[in-house]
Amino acid sequence: MPTWITVAEGVHQRRGGPFDLSVVVVEGADGLLVVDAGGDPSEGAEILADIRSRFDRPVLGLVNTHAHFDHTFGNQAFRSGVPDVAIHGHALIARHFERYEGPRVAAWRLDPSREPGRAWADVELVPPTHPIDAPVDLDLGGRAVRLLPQPPAHSDTDVVLFVPDVRVWVLGDLVEESGPPMYGSGSYPLTWPDVLEALAADMRDGDLVMPGHGAVVDRAFVARQAGVLRVIADRIAGAHAQGLPADEALAAHADWPLPPEGLTGAVERAYLALDGEPLEQGGTRDA
Ligand SMILES: [Zn+2]
């Protein structure tokens, strides 16, 4: 069963489901803003029903922290369950769907054994109704929430949500607590550490930070994860500069700060960037 935690006044985190996804609810006088929608239509519907059973106020909108399936494939349940729902997300989500999530669903439909356990037969990729490419302030009724689209990092579509009155940050998969950070589709391993360092610089001690998966963390955790991603970026860039082929880059070090089996996608994506390729292929990890 999913668990709910009130992390600050009127800000709640739901954890659970097949991906231990953080779903965040921000309350304002006019209604609720929900962050992230689950990995298939039925998880989206279950999240929406759970929220409606717990909160009296109407759902005003949904935010996608980024395009990956476990955060967006429930969008259609919000679209059909909430009349005129505003779906906020990065302007490049539609492009990301075309490049990565759409082909992945098409491949799964041809051969569901590629990814057992998915329930994507009826999934429709629903991009944001309110795409953003610059910071936006939303008014939930007496409460402002800021949406901050990020440069390429965990994905090409990361958006950070900040609730100024309680100093809560929602970072999506820019940080992960319950597992290692994932170099998924559309990731930018070389610039991800820059993005986290900049966010950590904007945070204060005592700020609360919600990861895409896992427990609430703080500024120090964000700074540490930035450091880990920096080591990985520097080593991959170093291997590339030495002329090592991609499949030898990981063997060049015995002491990676994350499990090396999770870094294949990082090498692929970083080498594509360093070779100046359009980053449309690679990035084979889950989310
Ligand atoms: Zn992700």
TrEMBL record:
- Looking at the record, the residues that make up the Metallo-beta-lactamase domain are 20-213
Q: Where are the transmembrane segments?
A: none
Supply the name of the protein: MBL fold metallo-hydrolase
Species in which this protein is naturally found: Agromyces allii
